[in-house]
């Protein structure tokens, strides 16, 4: 299965033309998504094609560093070309272990509601 992709380096370099490769091959390039993210890029591609999107009008665009959410290690958007141009239809993010790390940090103070009465 080949997917069209647009890496962040291509966007920054002004080479905004999607390239084709297998979803698994995305893991073999610079700044690779982990295998789990590549798997879901492939699953999203299959879903979009089965839903009726033509493969030539479907691409996966990697987010630039300043576009990513604070919790993301890497992000890709599934984009579909239509009469309005390229429209984002799905977002895929590698959250890594952000949630686990955030919950493992100790709270700065004990959580107490203002005006709360101690329980008896």
How would you describe this structure to a colleague?
The chain has 120 residues and is of the alpha+beta class. It has one domain. Helix content is 23%, strand content 28%. The protein has a 5-stranded mixed sheet with strand order 2-1-3-4-5. Strand 4 and strand 5 form a beta hairpin.
Molecular shape: elongated
What is the CA-based Rg, rounded?
A: 20 Å
What is the number of independent domains?
A: 1
Strand order across the largest sheet: 2-1-3-4-5
* Residues in helices, as a percent range: 10-25%
The tally of strands reads 5
CA-CA gap between termini: 64 Å
Largest sheet geometry? 5 strands, mixed
Strand content range: 25-35%
Overall SS class: alpha+beta
Total helical segments? 3
The helix-strand sequence is EHEHEEEH
